């Protein structure tokens, strides 16, 4: 969350065509030694990625070559440096308390208002206008999806065209609820920008890196990294490595923040300094006069388009604490038991979007990273359970510790409120018999969960038309046999067979 101490963050990269991990070779090597699963790809040299670091910091940044583009000591001078326009982007109500207030000041070639009227785009069967529609199904069944197909290059599906709503609840109108999407794409957003009026997007690439141009600058986000594009910020996605697939968590209220650490102390889980924010960069390859740009807006879950005769990525300098950011999941500093029993998965929370009910999240983003398992006398995989929260899970790579098969990278599962689930029969069998030496678990794996207090319905396309729902999912638990023997009154363990 926003720090109470507004401090201008030190840049982590002044000029680089490289990923921050490549900033200092020795540092990168040291990192790689401790984070063996960090397979973050290097971005192409054609783009320059420059970041500041520190979650929720107050940043001040000017595009390279335009020193002094930020006004000094005031936000709205009579005439801004370089003849730029000053524009405020508010991420919270003006009057929100200082610790949670978010806004940025953008200094741009022309203000955002210079566009033609928006026109509504035709309805798309992969979108959901209203999660309470009769065709969205609330279901108490365990649901699992096989991976959605990634379009071929020649199909030319851009990121904004490949958005597919899976499940959700509530509405942007009421500023209450969430949506979970999958995206698949095979083409760059070319002269097209998008923004979401409905809420924040937390994007989890699963296949293929994303080059995301935002109003605040460029982000390179590879699988095993995530990014957050807050409400209203315009962005365009390019695909430097070809076709992509990934997941999106959208929250209709609030913003993501780091979870409180309680007794853990001042450090651990996702550390604030590992969050990277773009430095100012504007689009120089598009002439600002005579160019044609389309801006797509998701507004109350409907898509609209407006044209502009210049690039919306025309911010030469900005300052503030409302901006997109990225985070490398291999930096997650996991905590777990060093004695016994399986802790609740909240111990792996990367980011949370709080509701007004203390301790109950609109949505948590939780990961299951590679780590050591050392619990003694313990059934180590996730336990059988029924939850007061909804659990959507996805897999970036590898294999998830509670599921022997069927849950594959790019696939997903939904276990709704009070829907029973847990380790499948083969996992139970193996984990009940395994030797409890310290072992590495989930090496080469990254599973995640979007956990939410909302009771979600499932979109018609995701449930039926996609044909990706695994109808035999429930059978994976049917092999869980009763071991209780009514005649074994002494509870003699030796008589138990697993
Ligand atoms: O259902 C799941 O696999 C997610 C999960 C993991 C875990 O370690 C404990 C509880 C839980 O819901
Ligand atoms: Fe669960």
Automatic annotation (TrEMBL):
GO CC entries: cytoplasm
Per UniProt, the keywords (alphabetical) are: Dioxygenase, Iron, Metal-binding, Oxidoreductase, Phenylalanine catabolism, Tyrosine catabolism
Q: Which residues bind Fe cation?
A: 385, 391, 421
Q: Name one Pfam family in it.
A: HgmA_N
CDD domains assigned: cupin_HGO_N
Q: What class of enzyme is it?
A: oxidoreductase
Record domain Homogentisate 1,2-dioxygenase N-terminal: where: 50-329
Q: Name one GO molecular function term.
A: metal ion binding
What ranges does the record give for the region Disordered, renumbered to this chain?
25-44
Q: Locate the Homogentisate 1,2-dioxygenase C-terminal domain: which residues? A: 330-484
- Which co-factor is required? Fe cation
Alphabetical GO biological process terms: L-phenylalanine catabolic process; L-tyrosine catabolic process
Q: What is its EC number?
A: 1.13.11.5
Q: Where does this protein act, in terms of pathway? A: Amino-acid degradation; L-phenylalanine degradation; acetoacetate and fumarate from L-phenylalanine: step 4/6
Q: Which family is it part of?
A: Belongs to the homogentisate dioxygenase family.
**Name used for this protein in its record:** homogentisate 1,2-dioxygenase
Q: Which organism is it from?
A: Allomyces macrogynus (strain ATCC 38327)
